[in-house]
User: What shape does this take?
Amino acid sequence: MYVLVGLIVGGAVALMVGADIPPDQSRYLAIIVLAGVDAAAGGTRAALEHTFSDRIFVVSLMTNALLGAALVWLGDQLDLDLTTAVAVVFGIRIFQNVAALRRRYLS
Assistant: This one.
């Protein structure tokens, strides 16, 4: 839960500061934010299932962010747009975790 609050507060602070992100780096930031949302949703699900481990959470967050950014970089090197593919994968994972949370709350 703290991670989700941290993401929201961090996003609000970034919007208030008005930081400019270069267009060539915006795709990397988008993928890293999706990795963070995925980790937050997965961590919330694990916490509700009483299987949460902070070590697994941090490793999952870092691995997903680095792997996602690496795939986008590889796509840039090969002149392919892999950003969409990585975003779809993270999107599917986020929706699966949110669906599991919804099922847990509604049943």
In short: The two ends are 21 Å apart (CA to CA). Residues 23-48 form the longest helix (26 residues). The chain has four helices and no strands. The helical segments are 2-17, 23-48, 54-77, 83-106.
